[in-house]
Amino acid sequence: MGLTPIAGQNDDSEFFSQSNARTLETFAASKGVQELSFWEVNGYDKPLNYAYSKIFQKITTGSIANDFSVTLSPTSGSVKAGSSATIAVSTAVASGSAQSVALSVSGLPAGAGASFSPAAVNAGSGSTLTVTTGSSGACNAAWNSTTACVPHDQVSYAGHNYTALYWSTGVTPGTPIAWNIWQDNGTC
To answer: For the chain, which domains are there?
Structure first.
């Protein structure tokens, strides 16, 4: 957000003084305003040896908080039981200067793990995220073509465990038409 007053004499006959400028600069700094500018540089500020510019320069040249962004490629995916996947992690400086970024993962399901190599980078550098899953172990109850399945139901078919993503009856897991009905959770 920025603030832009008219320096000196305003259109409504009010006068924005240097004292007003200092008060506005103090207020803006306390509220995190990132930009102060004003109208009438040549008309009012230049004859005053740029007094308004010097007051507002405190905020426009002040320190900027260090911040970074993180992007992943690919942005989403799935990992079958007993397998792993790698994801490229890129960081960038969003503002300020490059700082150390410690990378971590939370909210993984039971049996899944994740690690970064390296686990900490300077903003602007990259890392590799490896997601691993444990073996699925036992097979779920066998799929039956006459049983109605609802989302989150779990079945096994042809040596694989599946989770229902949608309501269905008779759609065989693992077939080409089942891509949006069943999620293959790997071998069992």
So the answer is: 2-60 (no CATH), 67-133 (no CATH), 137-188 (2.10.10.20)
